Amino acid sequence: MTKTFLGIRFWNSSTDKLLESADSEGGLFTVPSAPSLAQMRHDPHLMESYQASDFAVGDGGYVALVLRLCFGRNLPRISGLQILQRLVGEKKQRAIPFHDRNILWVVPTPAEKERIDYYLEDQGFPRHTRHWYQAPFYKNAEDFNDEALAAKVQEVKPDWIILCIAGGKQEKLGLFLRKGFSMEHGAGSEENPDALPSQLQPPSSPRPNGPVILCTGGAIAFLTGGQANIPTWADRMYLGWLFRVFQSPKTFLPRYWNAGYEFPMLLWDKRKNLFQ
Q: Which of 11, 33, 246, 267 could make an S-S bridge to 60, C-beta 3.0–4.6 Å?
């Protein structure tokens, strides 16, 4: 059910099957877009994080369009917003009984925590299933070895960990956690053990890869009101980026402009093994 592109195994089936599989297996779940893939060109740590993903989906019409027009390849687009709508949206539309899951939310600010908590309360999520960790500012590579977060995971023993921090950082943090669970399950313990979290223990769930570590960044803000809401039709027509640009042009316009150049250059750099 996957297609390999740039060394990343992308999901190639429906959103519901994706979430059901992730919920039963656990592991690192990333949502690469054109800007983050472009960033990968100069960031080996980010490339490692994406290529180590147990689940990955293409969140970007630009990526899907380039693959279709230039290479004749189809890669299903599943956005981070779409994933969250199927997890924490209206109960009747949820792909899995997510309200029964123990969830650790990793947030950048107290204000973001309050918005998400208010939204979850309104959606009927039990308070005892909601847990929080405010992430510090990760600047250097060693900062992602966040032992305080590892301790929080050990305390909460979540089914899902949802990382709501910036793209390009959340994936590295997710890789740190994923390596820890690999070590606990007997895989990867000999690969740079000093970089692995010392406090992670086997999760309480039966998932073979530990809890799901979902990297959807700021997408939750489109549901909570932290950012302007993206209509469903716009998201499906690959126009979510345009709504982001209209709301915050100084933030998003340079990001998408840079991706317009760097992503094709990445494809050129990797042209000999794009689909291996």
A: 33
Nearest to 184, CA basis, from 201, 196, 199, 198 = 201
State pLDDT tens for residues 188-244: 444 444 444 545 554 455 799 999 999 999 999 989 987 766 777 777 777 777 777
Q: What is the CATH number of domain 99-227?
A: 3.40.50
Nearest Cα residue to 215 out of 102, 59, 12 = 59
Torsion 98-104-107-112 (CA) sign:
positive
Instruction: Name residue, tokens 């060394």.
Output: 7
pLDDT in tens, 24-73: 999 999 999 889 999 999 999 999 999 999 999 998 778 888 888 888 88
Asked if 204 and 157 count as a contact pair (C-beta separation under 8 A), the reply is yes
Give the SS3 label for residue 173: helix
CA atoms within 13 A on the CB side of 147: 5
Q: How many CB atoms lie within 10 A of CB 264?
A: 14
For residue 49, what are the CA distances in angstroms to 57, 62, 269?
14, 21, 19
Give the distance, in angstroms, between the CA of residue 24 and the centroid of all CA atoms in the same chain: 17
Residue type, 232: T
pTM: 0.89
pLDDT digit string, tens, across residues 209-220: 999 999 999 999
